[in-house]
Structures are given as structure tokens and as C-alpha cells.
Design brief:
With 291 residues, the protein is α/β, with parallel strands linked by helices. It is 36% helix and 14% strand. The mean pLDDT is 94. Bound molecules: glutamic acid (GLU). Glutamic acid binds next to loops.
Length: 291
């Protein structure tokens, strides 16, 4: 008998859910039901500065109102920080990550100065400037000195080294579509992200590390999420390869755009699920909008 499918909806409680989240949650829930699978809710709250219990309560309220039910207890990432630290420790021991003391602001200034000379700096798939990579070359003793000095730092993946550990090119199975209609067997391209952050200076993990570990630990077989995370899957596939984790099937769905044609944001109250509830709409009205 094949394995029971496991789906999850994994919001971050740093704002109110909007209609894009509603689509994601409904799709996960409905696909789980249609395939005799399990449906999990995971709260991705490693960013303690921005996530609040009030937003989490709002998420639970909104999903309940939509008519969804999920398994309990709900996994909260802030309760599993040791797990992420442990995985990072494995990568430190294997010399696949290095401490990075440059702040995002400092990188921005460096890139700005470079581009002011009329040259363009390479960008990651989200359009952010790639990390310059200078600190990769720090000597072990200089690294130790800076760490011992207690300077805040992130840990970055040494992408070239990580890629060199692979026996074969990475792919994934896409049952949805990417931004350019990509579907089926997709060739992963983690190198496009440069030396990604796996542990932040202000949190013990990054999104990439926590999401990959949790999907594996919770036995998630199908990752159904917005198309904005299509390219991030390349990093997740690489981490699965490095940490010997199973590979789920991926399904990226379309994004719901606002009247201005842009991706919805959690700060825009008009497109929040809560605003719909208050306006007297029903869960069926929400479903009718996109399912
Ligand atoms: N926590 C992420 C977000 O709210 C989603 C993670 C995922 O589905 O992989 O955007």
C-alpha cells in the first residue's frame, strides 16, 4: 500500500491572512481530503520580532471560519529551535556553512556603491542582490576571533562546496506550475541563490532550513504553496540532499493579485479574510472566487 499523503498549510503569524492564504489553505485541505490524506497546520514563527500570539489566534479563527479542520497539536516552529540548531551544527561540522558578520544594510551599501559606477550586481531569483561572499575567505583563526568577540552573525551556506557534495543534479516533481509555466520534472538551480542564510543573526534558523526540516519531520509528502516560493524549492532540494531528507512532491499555485495587479500583502486590510467576514461574506463566497 502506498504511503498516506500528508499536506500542510504553513503560515507565519506576522499579519492577517489574506485571500492568497485562503486559496493555499483551501487547496491543501481539499487535496488532502480528495486523496485520503492528512492535513496539518504549521505555525512558522521563528521571526520572534514580527510574529505575535494575536496574529496566530487570528489565523486559527480565519481557518475555522473557512470550514477547515486540521490535526492537533499544531506544530509551532518557535518550540523546536534546538532541532534547527542541531542541523546547523551538522553543517558546521561538515564545513558547509560559515559565519557572516556583514549586515543586510552593509551589503546594500556595498552593492549600491558598485552599481553607482554603472555596473550591475547579480541578483537572486527574488531580485535581491547576491551576497558578495567575502567572508567565505576569512581564515579559521580570524573567524574564531570574531565569533569569540560575540559579534552578531548569520550562518551562510557555502554554495559551491555544497553543490560539490552532490552526486547528481537535483530535480523535483512539480504538479502545479512555476512563474513561466514550468511543470513536471524541474531542474533545481540552488546556485542562483548564492550563499543563502541558514541561520539568522536575530533568529536561530532561516525560513529555508526550518521549512525543509519540518516538512521532513512531519512526513509531508506534498508541499502545496504559492508560486512566489517556486524558486526557493531549489534551496530546499539542496538542503534535503545535504541532510539526507526525503523529497516531497511540489505543487505551486497561482497568486491572488490585488486591484493594483500586485501580490497581496498582509498589511493590506481590504483583502484580509477578516475583512471579508466582517463584510458579511460567507466561506462559500471565498471558495467561489477561485475554486
Ligand atoms: N511560512 C511561509 C509563508 O508564510 C510559507 C512556507 C511554505 O509554504 O513553504 O510565506
Amino acid at each position: 500500500m502506498s504511503k498516506q499523503p500528508v499536506f500542510r498549510f504553513a503560515p507565519s503569524p506576522n499579519g492577517q491572512l489574506h485571500l492568497g492564504h485562503a486559496l493555499s489553505a483551501l487547496l491543501n485541505h481539499d487535496m488532502a481530503k480528495a486523496n485520503g490524506g492528512r492535513f496539518l497546520l504549521r505555525i512558522e514563527d521563528i521571526d520572534i520580532a514580527r510574529c505575535t500570539p494575536e496574529f496566530e489566534a487570528g489565523i486559527v479563527d480565519d481557518l475555522g471560519w473557512l470550514g477547515l479542520d486540521w490535526e492537533k497539536p499544531v506544530r509551532r516552529q518557535s518550540e523546536h529551535l534546538d532541532l534547527y540548531r542541531q542541523a546547523l551544527g551538522t553543517l558546521i561540522d561538515r564545513d558547509l556553512v560559515y559565519p557572516s558578520f556583514l549586515t543586510r544594510g552593509a551589503i546594500k551599501v556595498m552593492v549600491g556603491e558598485f552599481e553607482a559606477k554603472g555596473r550591475s550586481w547579480p541578483r537572486d531569483p527574488d531580485g535581491a542582490p547576491l551576497y558578495p561572499g567575502e567572508e567565505r575567505k576569512l581564515s579559521p583563526s580570524a573567524r574564531q576571533r570574531m565569533l569569540a568577540g560575540g559579534k552578531p552573525h548569520a550562518w551562510r551556506l557555502d554554495m559551491a562546496r555544497a553543490l560539490a557534495t552532490l552526486d547528481a543534479p537535483l530535480t523535483w516533481q512539480e504538479t502545479g506550475t512555476g512563474p513561466n509555466g514550468e511543470t513536471g520534472a524541474i531542474a533545481a538551480d540552488p546556485g542562483a541563490w548564492g550563499d543563502v542564510v541558514l541561520s539568522r543573526s536575530d533568529a536561530p534558523s532561516s525560513y529555508h532550513l526550518a521549512v525543509t526540516l519540518d516538512d521532513a519531520l512531519q512526513g509531508v509528502t506534498h508541499v502545496v504553496r504559492g508560486r512566489d516560493l517556486f524558486h526557493a524549492t531549489s534551496v530546499h532540494r539542496l538542503l534535503q540532499g545535504l541532510l539526507d531528507l526525503p523529497e516531497p512532491v511540489y505543487h505551486h499555485h497561482r497568486l491572488i493579485l490585488g486591484a493594483d495587479g500586485r501580490k497581496l500583502s498582509k498589511s493590506n486590510r481590504d483583502t484580509g479574510i477578516a475583512a471579508f467576514r466582517e463584510a458579511g461574506k460567507t466561506p462559500d463566497d471565498v471558495r467561489a472566487m477561485f475554486l
